[in-house]
Amino acid sequence: MLELRAVTAGYDPKAPVVRNASLAVAPGEAVGLLGPSGCGKSTLARVAALLHRPDSGTLLLDGTPVRRWRHRAPREQRTAVGVVFQQPRLSADPRLRLTDLIAEPLRATGRREEAPGRVAELAAAVGLTPDLLGRRPHEVSDGQLQRACLARALVLRPRWLVCDEMTAMLDASTTAALVAVVEEYRAATGAGLLAVGHDHTLLRRWCDRTAHWEDVTGGTP
Amino acid sequence: MTEPTPVLSVRGLSVRFLMPGGRRVAAVTDVHFDVAPGECLALIGESGCGKSVLASALLGLLPANAQSAGEARLGDLDLISADERTLSRKVRGRLIGLVPQSPAAHLTPVRTIRSQTEETVAALAGIRGRAAVRDAARAAAERAAFPAGHLDRHPHELSGGLAQRAATALALVGDAPLLLADEPTTGLDRDLVDRTVDELRRHVDTADGTGRGLLMITHDLAAAERIADRVAVMYAGRIVELADAASFFGSPGPRHPYGRGLLRALPDRAFTPIPGLPPELGALPEGCAFAPRCDRATDACAALPPVTGGVACHHPVPGSDVRAAEDVHA
Ligand code: SF4
User: Fold this and answer.
1) For A64-80, what is each residue's pLDDT tens digit?
2) CA distances from residue B202 to A117, B135, B172, B205 in whole angstroms, order as listed
3) Minimal Cα distance from A124: which residue of B?
4) Whose CA is nearest to atom 1 of ligand 1?
5) How far apart are CA A120 and CA B19, in angstroms?
6) Is the CB of B263 inside 8 Å of chain A's CB atoms?
7) Are B27 and B53 in contact (CB under 8 A)?
């Protein structure tokens, strides 16, 4: 289970953007979290991805509470969750070639030798050609860069995937292609998914169930 | 019935970027289309297909390494050969109102909406005198349904929807005959998308049919379906299909395999992607650029398909036969 229990989080403890949010994703399950933009759902996604320490509440990964966040989180927890954001240009190091961008988490966890095989495998899955892999972010389109960011999120074979508005900037075909990659990965590995977004049609089609922001935050202040 | 004179008439427009090392990128190639008064034409396609470059070409905002050819007539002015002085004094704001992709970035962050609107009103509508400018600015805001109570706010104090309305208010001030909306709904929630396009539509529709024309560039097919009278599908720098919106989104559906693929990718349709990636604009194949991804391709497609009946394809889906063709493929 990936479980968020009574999470309150934000950037100013006096005015948290997430209040008392609870949500659970079972292994292999795909849950869509729907909410209007600016409601705080991206902050909750960052908590679920161990990237933002909540003011209060608990994140449990397979029963173990997360006590440390970001780079201080223990490796086995950090590598259990892969994350993709809305804006690939903000989340990709502009100096790295796509091939190094995808391999970055392997290098950071001392598994550099797996990179060539794993990158080739994932590049094929997300539809990036060898020519594109040699380019830097400013030399590819948003859609191509997001393909690389998805490959990077999958490179450590996470048990959980958090996709925060992954396709909001993308055209219909690239959207369908990236969702298909996620679903193939989940079918092969049994990974669970938390997909955060505002597009009802998309999340209802993609996920096993959808939850609304008001229900997740329970209305309790 | 005679056709009304188009607001914008684009003929043979091409844009090439000259890259270091002598490489040429064919961003826009031989584009033809019209926008009639009171009409909304939606230009759709994947990111990188050339649609934003086309918008920049119309506004005279191409980078220095771009070369354009062809014509884009707006009244008696050709936008492509116009000099920068004409473009900045007569075109941007006065002949073309730009509704930008990211209003928050387009508005000046350190000034209130009121001050920006007043400045635009004074500059474009030629209104003089403090009280008159003030009234005109309030009226301009009201026209775009921007609440008067928010006029003294700065752009960052506005929601995405209100920032979009503020930007639309500025775009409308000059009473330009053409509105150019560049991805106006990116990042907006669905109900806000609906509201934004409905408001844009309202500025195009006038009772006497002499309204302005709207060219909307978008990758949001649902927004295009909601607002457009006609659809132009762009692929690899060319318009591959120009169709009536009702028949494109409804029956008989797109006739070009690319347009058909785009619609099939929608989550409320088949949700299946078009295989492969669009080609590099710097290394386009000889014949039809869609051939490597096309399930109807034959040897004939090694030659560039001519535009016939609004469709650039050697084997378009027959207009009356889309359903049958879909069944065979299913
Ligand atoms: S010309 Fe040929 S390859 Fe191109 S879209 Fe038509 S059928 Fe497909």
Assistant:
1) 999 999 989 899 999 99
2) 55, 22, 12, 5
3) B276
4) B313
5) 29
6) yes
7) yes
B277 contacts A37? CB cut-off 8 A: no
Three-class secondary structure of residue A76 per DSSP? helix
Binary contact (B277, A127; C-beta < 8 A): yes
The predicted complex's ipTM stands at 0.90
H/E segment holding residue A94: none
Say if residues B228 and B35 touch (Cβ distance below 8 Å). Answer: no
Pick one of 3.40.50.300, 1.10.760.10, 3.40.50.10490, 3.90.320.10 as the CATH number of B8-36+49-83+227-329: 3.40.50.300
Q: What residue in B sits closest to A204 (Cα-Cα)?
A: B267
Q: Residue A182's pLDDT is what?
A: 98
Strands (E), B170-315: 178-182, 213-218, 230-235, 238-244, 307-308, 311-312
Q: Is A145 on the interface with B (CB under 8 A)?
A: no
Residues of A in contact with B222 (CB under 8 A): 201
Domains located in chain A, CATH noted: 1-80+158-221 (3.40.50.300), 90-156 (no CATH)
Rounded CA-CA distance B268/B204 in Å is: 28
- Angle CA A138–B188–B142, to nearest 5: 120
Query: What are the pLDDT digits (tens) for A133-144?
Result: 999 999 888 899
| Closest-approach residue (CA) in chain A for B258 | A173
Q: Are B313 and B240 in contact (CB under 8 A)?
A: yes
Query: Beta strands B77-78 and B66-74: pairing type?
Result: antiparallel
Do you know the residue count of chain B? 330
Chain B residues whose CB is inside 8 A of the A144 CB are 277
pTM assigned to the model: 0.88
Put simply, the chain A residues between 3 and 42 with a CB less than 8 A from any chain B CB are 36-38
Distance of CA B33 to the CA centre of its chain: 12
CB A97 within 8 A of CB A136: yes
